[in-house]
Amino acid sequence: MAERAKRNRQEFESLPPEQRQDYIGVQPGAYVRLEIPNIPCEFVQHFDPSYPIIVGSLLPGEEKLGYVRVRMKRHRWYKKILKSHDPLIVSMGWRRFQTLCVYSVEDHNGRRRMLKYTPEHIHCMASFYGPVTTPNTGVLAIQSVNNNINT
């Protein structure tokens, strides 16, 4: 990997900085200026320069919506069971959204059997409609962001 980086550096060092940036992008640690049109006035009113602004982007394939299947297990500290078709807030990569999950398990012959509730102490599959993401992306699902819920 270091050899490849060295070859890239040698290849592009003769180019002017603007053209080099077009080919390899902005170097890590460099300062950039973002011009964002139509920014809400609340952003400027509540802006605190002591907190960094995290800017992320999505790949072209991640802008699409579709059915997503994830392998999930209820956390052992959460005492309640989860019911199919109940709303969940899902955090998946950069995305946060609310969706309705359908839980299922796979039979020995390969069919998926729908579950009304999440099983105890084992994994199950959760299917929901949401943004398509790459395989092996971590997923966190919670029922509510309210702190006053008795668990």
UniProtKB/TrEMBL annotation:
GO terms under biological process: endonucleolytic cleavage of tricistronic rRNA transcript (SSU-rRNA, 5.8S rRNA, LSU-rRNA); maturation of SSU-rRNA from tricistronic rRNA transcript (SSU-rRNA, 5.8S rRNA, LSU-rRNA)
Molecular function (Gene Ontology), one example: GTP binding
One term under GO cellular component: 90S preribosome
Pfam families hit by this protein: RIBIOP_C
Residue ranges annotated for the Ribosome biogenesis protein BMS1/TSR1 C-terminal domain, each copy included: 1-147
Name under which the protein is recorded: Ribosome biogenesis protein BMS1/TSR1 C-terminal domain-containing protein
Organism lineage string: Eukaryota, Metazoa, Porifera, Demospongiae, Heteroscleromorpha
